[in-house]
Amino acid sequence: DTAVSQTPKYLVTQMGNDKSIKCEQNLGHDTMYWYKQDSKKFLKIMFSYNNKELIINETVPNRFSPKSPDKAHLNLHINSLELGDSAVYFCASSSDPEVYGYTFGSGTRLTVV
Amino acid sequence: SQQGEEDPQALSIQEGENATMNCSYKTSINNLQWYRQNSGRGLVHLILIRSNEREKHSGRLRVTLDTSKKSSSLLITASRAADTASYFCATALSGGYNKLIFGAGTRLAVHP
To answer: How confident is the model at residue B94, as a pLDDT?
Structure first.
């Protein structure tokens, strides 16, 4: 079974729309993350939740809002999509990021047209 | 700017050869990790080396860490075509920041 699963895998939408990406992990990890990978492959952290509590909120526009209903789920909602939001968004989880590596989902390729 | 920077940006070798990728970083770390990303896929954790370790092995992978130079290297021995991927170093900053900072990655192509 997939350890960190994201849906959808692909998302094509028009500017101005609102969309959500869902992430679920079945590893029992306490910490979950959202990363954005741009067209040059740079990976940048956006948010981190530890047991449903927001612990990292990098400089991300207010149009991006994470939600964690429980420690196994971390969703990302994006309002008023812009062309520059086109990227691959990765969800990840870790039991202890200072000791263990992250487990990544397979990514959601978002294309804003 | 990125915390970690990989060198080279791209590497092309023949099967059976060794591949060495380097990573430099800027601030104090708890650990440094290497990940592999196949085209169109997520990142896969390869190996983690703690700041008090100097060398670590895992199968055909050998990682070194020099905290005085703030650098690390990943060596893949006896490379295979299946090793073709992008490789990223990521640093876990000291101070409890609870996040990984990724470098720009090295694209490795292994030709049969």
So the answer is: 73
Starting from the edge strand earliest in sequence, which strands make up the sheet with A4-7, in order? Answer: A4-7, A19-25, A73-78, A64-70
Report how far residue B28's alpha carbon sits from residue B26's, in angstroms, rounded to the nearest whole number.
Answer: 7
Which token pair is A37?
């990978």
Supply angle C-alpha B27, B29, B34, rounded to 5: 110
Q: How far off is chain B from A89, nearest CA to CA, in Å?
A: 10
pLDDT digits (tens, 9 = 90+) for A79-88: 999 999 999 9
- Judge: A101–B101 Cβ closer than 8 Å, yes or no: no
CB-CB neighbors (< 8 A) of B30 in chain A: 98
Query: How many Cβ atoms sit within 10 Å of the Cβ of residue A26?
Result: 12
- Cα–Cα distances (Å) from A53 to A50, A71, B63, in that order, read 5, 9, 34
Please indicate whether, in this complex, the C-beta atoms of B88 and A44 are within 8 angstroms of each other: no
Average pLDDT of chain A? 93
3-state class of A16 per DSSP? Answer: coil
